Amino acid sequence: MAHESTYQPKTGFTRWMDSRLPIIRMAHETILDYPTPRNLTYMWTFGGILAFCLGVQILTGIVLAMHYAPNTAVAFDSIEHLMRDVNYGWLMRYTHAVGASMFFVAVYLHMFRGLYYGSYKAPREVLWILGVLIFLAMIATAFMGYSLVWGQMSFWAVTVITNLFSSLDTIIDGLGTTLVQWIWGGFAVDNATLNRLFSLHYLLPFVIAGLVGLHIWALHVPGNNNPTGVDLRDVNREAVPFHPYYTTKDGFALVVFAILFAYFVFYVPNYLGHADNYVEANPLQTPPHIVPEWYFLPFYAILRAIPSKLGGVIAMFGAIAVLFLVPWLDTSKVRSTRYRPLYRYFFWMLVISCLALGYLGAKSPEGGYLIAGRLFTAYYFLHFLVIMPVVGIIETPKPQPRSIAESVLGPSARGGGQVPHPVPAAAEKR
Amino acid sequence: MATTMEEPVTRRDFIHIAATAFAGVGAAAALWPVISQMNPDASALSLASIELDLAPIQEGQGITVMWRGKPIFVRNRSAEEIKAAQDVPMAELKDPEARIMEGAAMPATDAARTKPGHEQWLVMVGICTHLGCIPKGQRSGEAKGDYGGWFCPCHGSAYDTSGRIRSGPAPRNLDIPPYEFVSDTKIKIG
């Protein structure tokens, strides 16, 4: 939302700074002058929560790297050393491991929020695409981080996932094998592989931080979407400053989130992990069941649903790639699913499909599980490629409020500013 | 003519294009070592070959050894296993190619995948051609799958007693590494 800067440097130093590097002005504009729709719900608090998650991961990760040795001979032992001998090492590691899960909990809620309220629609397409890029970088980072433990699941997850690229052999003979050996730096997953995964795992969070900067920039140009999906028109009546209104709201949500986070860290730190990863990597023995971490299970289910190696790989990457096209696949003129009586059902079908695929990803791909996996995979792609474009055309949306003010203050607030305010302007947000 | 309206090509245009192209080629050349360093290094490439004494391996027994960081399955097959492998019609095979590493392409007959006169010995890279898991079936008591050979627990690929893919998602037969008999009871792999 374009807005006037109200920043007035008051001291000699801030005036001096403002004409050289106006960084205080930038912070002021971002936090205090940034007008935020007054009707944002708690579903809008996950942006702040995700920033917190990234901060926690970077901080604990830097600490872990001080004690971890990325060498196949000692990697596994160095983690046990960290857990047992290093002061608070257990806390750092459990926070980092649980933190990855919490990061994905928050990002999935954030993404479904965006899908439900049409937050990807014009003029927020670039904002959405940057979000999908962040999600991709998160997937890569989490996968590499998991491999560093060098337990059985780490080793075999790296083996299976890097071997996905060998499916390119069916397109050009030898291409996939060459690529996989380039990724490994050898003829099998070994020390060279572990070293490069560590290097990249340390790099990618800072790439994510850079993308988050662009994501916030792209957010602040059009401004927040809101539950009605209606554009912000009257800044004085329909918006409140980000601070203190949303810093407080985000802060409260963050505390609730942190309670859940702390529950996992202090009471069930290994609940979301797999016991086999406490067995050191053994290249001669595959564990009976290879399952990824829970946050990758839907994609793993899609990979296994397709009865062809290359086809499965294409479907798995396609499941993420299709998200880039969502702003153009959705043909509806209405942003918020609140006013889309038909699409609403399909949205919840998508949520159910993703949850079901997550459940099926942990099951052995045979019999009924395999059939169910195929059905939900089919729905996932149909939803984006067929239902989104078609429903947008055939659906008759419910009437939307004419403005955010009308939706918050009732129909009497219609007609701009002539109506006397029934409530003091901003303070009575909800 | 629209072209008459355009400015004529000058020496400066040429210098711009030439300089940009030169910088581009230079950047690509500088990038190449950064990409190439990730390839298998000299120590990985030095093809360490290993010798293996087959004498202690009983009929029906299989052992696993490491070669180039990969598990190699060596099985002393029983007469029934050899017969089962030889009797499979070629038309039933999912992958009709023998998959001899560093060798010429030939049909995946059991004879092609073993050495003449040493039909009881099957030597293969023990890595599932689907996604790289180690199939079960080497140790006695392990599941051998519906075709009596090997069974991959990851995604359910089943191999026959010649190591050929028969069911499941794996696309290829198990690879046969380069090896030779140095004596009747000794092989050299690599």
Key descriptive features of the protein:
heterodimer, A: 430 residues, mainly alpha, Cytochrome Bc1 Complex, Chain C, Helix Hairpins, two-stranded antiparallel ribbon, 17 helices, globular, disordered C terminus, B: 190 residues, alpha+beta, 3-stranded antiparallel beta sheet, 20% helix
Q: Can you tell me about this structure?
A:
- The complex is a heterodimer of chains A (430) and B (190).
- With 430 residues, chain A is an all-alpha fold.
- In chain A, 61% of the residues lie in helices and 1% in strands.
- Chain A has 17 helices and two strands.
- A two-stranded antiparallel ribbon of chain A has the order 1-2.
- By secondary structure, chain B is of the alpha+beta class.
- Helix content of chain B is 20%, strand content 22%.
- Chain B is built from three helices and nine strands.
- Chain B has a three-stranded antiparallel sheet with strand order 1-9-8, with no helix packed on it.
- In chain B, a hairpin with a 2-residue loop joins β8 (179-183) and β9.
- The A-B interface holds A 156, 159-160, 162-164, 166, 170, 181-188, 190, 192, 196, 283-286, 288-290, 304, 307-309, 312, 364-366 and B 38-41, 44, 64, 66, 68-71, 130-134, 152-156, 169-171.
The rough form of chain B would be described as: elongated
Largest interface: A-B, 34 and 24 residues
Specify the structural class of chain A: mainly alpha
Point out poorly predicted stretches of chain B. none
Report on the biggest sheet of chain A. 2 strands, antiparallel
CATH topology type of the largest domain in chain A? Cytochrome Bc1 Complex, Chain C
Largest sheet of chain B: 3 strands, antiparallel
Distance between the termini of chain A: 22 Å
Query: Mean of residue pLDDT of chain B?
Result: 88
| Relative helix content of chain B | 10-25%
Q: Give me the side-by-side strand order of the main sheet of chain B.
A: 1-9-8
* Gyration radius of chain A, rounded: 24 Å
Q: Spans of chain A of 5+ residues with little confidence (pLDDT < 50)?
A: 415-430
Give me the side-by-side strand order of the main sheet of chain A: 1-2
- What name goes with the CATH superfamily of the largest domain in chain A? Cytochrome Bc1 Complex, Chain C
Oligomerization category of the chains in this entry: heterodimer
| Rg for CA atoms of chain B | 26 Å
Share of residues in helices of chain A: 55-70%
Helix and strand element order of chain A: HHEHHHHHHHHEHHHHHHH
User: What is the rounded distance between the termini of chain B?
Assistant: 70 Å
